[in-house]
Amino acid sequence: MDSSGRAQDATESKPSPTGRALESVGSRQSPGENVSAAYLVAARESLRSLFFSENGFSCAQVILDVLQETGGTSAGSSTVQAYALGGGIGHTGEGWCGALVGGAMAIGEFCAGHMEDPLAVAPATWQYVQDLHEDFVNEFGCATCQELLGFSIQGEEGLAHYEQTNCKEDICFRNLVFVLERLLPIVQNQSPPF
């Protein structure tokens, strides 16, 4: 059991070796800072392979799966639960980009697995997600799926248009890489991404 009385299993992440709790945001890191070039290339290739496979995974699922594969978050049902979060949540286009949503979920999993004080998890998670969102909007000008794509992805017509354009590579994969590069420092260094 951990300090909150919650049972821990062997797959749960443990606090970092330095014992440093993620209590404050600190200075932001550049994308991929302190992440080896080989590790970054391998993570991008894993992301590309999963995203362009025929598995039907959403952007949120791809981010979660790659981060779980690399050991940054605990494996669990979140990848399955993230099916509903693709295409701006439920393929409405009106919610955040799935890459951003998956990144937010991964940050929550990381904070919950690495912070000793359960009451500190939510505020730390909120701050990290707000910072990720701010960086994303500063980079791309918006955060909703529909605004990023420039059209509605909703319904058969929207999905057909998505499949006929190159936006999966030009927009969606670009967004996935952006989020992944900001979360890799967590995975490799067990340190805050921002």
Task: Characterise the protein shown here.
With 194 residues, this protein is mostly helical. It has one domain. It is built from 8 helices and no strands. The protein has helices at 37-51, 59-69, 78-81, 98-114, 118-140, 145-149, 155-164, 167-189. The longest helix has 23 residues, at 118-140. The protein is globular, with a radius of gyration of 17 Å. Residues 1-32 have low confidence and may be disordered.
Share of residues in helices: 55-70%
The largest β sheet comes out as: none
From the N-terminal CA to the C-terminal CA, the straight-line distance is 30 Å
Quick one: how many beta strands?
Answer: 0
Radius of gyration: 17 Å
Q: In total, how many domains does the architecture comprise?
A: 1
Mean pLDDT: 75
Secondary structure class reads: mainly alpha
How would the blueprint of this fold be written?
Elements: H1 37-51, H2 59-69, H3 78-81, H4 98-114, H5 118-140, H6 145-149, H7 155-164, H8 167-189
Helix pairs in contact: 1-2, 1-8, 2-4, 2-8, 4-5, 4-8
